[in-house]
């Protein structure tokens, strides 16, 4: 499979993605726990069917010490006992924030309150920006059919 576009060969896309990737680095440096960031990035990418992001975030999380059990259960996190209450709150917020176009109505007050119980305002800000960032990254990759499987942990960081 070949990508439809080479974003880095395009002056416009290349310039834009330079700034976009620096935003991703800022999120990585936020006070939102790194494990939570990878779980959320993985779940959003699963929902959006972004193979290249699933490949990246699975490998980065594993390289950072995440277990295969937890990574394999992200898609079914509601029925899994391996996630903390804080992680569950983040995953629920990520799902509702990602499924806006499905007519789900966005993030409910109950889900927001549950997340706010586990994360301070700075962490919540990082979580919301991460969900938005991942949805954008997923769309860029899915539209251009970026192939997955060759990512090396830390390649883009």
From TrEMBL:
GO terms for molecular function: peroxiredoxin activity. Residues 16-95 form the Carboxymuconolactone decarboxylase-like domain. Transmembrane segments: none annotated. It holds the Pfam family CMD. It comes from the Bacteria. PANTHER family: 4-CARBOXYMUCONOLACTONE DECARBOXYLASE FAMILY PROTEIN (AFU_ORTHOLOGUE AFUA_6G11590) (PTHR34846), BLL7811 PROTEIN (PTHR34846:SF7). This is Carboxymuconolactone decarboxylase family protein. It comes from Streptomyces sp. R21.
């Amino acid at each position: 499979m070949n990508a439809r576009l080479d974003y880095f060969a395009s002056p416009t896309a290349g310039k834009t993605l330079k700034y976009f990737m620096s935003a991703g680095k800022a999120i990585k440096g936020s006070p939102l726990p790194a494990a939570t960031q990878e779980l959320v990035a993985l779940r959003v990418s699963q929902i959006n069917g972004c193979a290249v992001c699933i490949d990246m975030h699975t490998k980065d999380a594993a390289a950072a010490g995440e277990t295969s059990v937890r990574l394999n259960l992200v898609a079914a996190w509601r029925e899994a006992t391996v996630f903390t209450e804080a992680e569950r709150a983040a995953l629920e917020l990520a799902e509702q924030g990602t499924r806006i176009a499905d007519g789900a109505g966005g993030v409910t007050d109950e889900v927001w309150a549950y997340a706010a119980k586990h994360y301070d305002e700075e962490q919540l800000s990082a979580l919301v920006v991460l969900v938005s960032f991942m949805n954008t990254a997923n769309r860029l990759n899915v539209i251009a059919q970026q192939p997955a499987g060759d990512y090396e942990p830390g390649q883009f960081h």
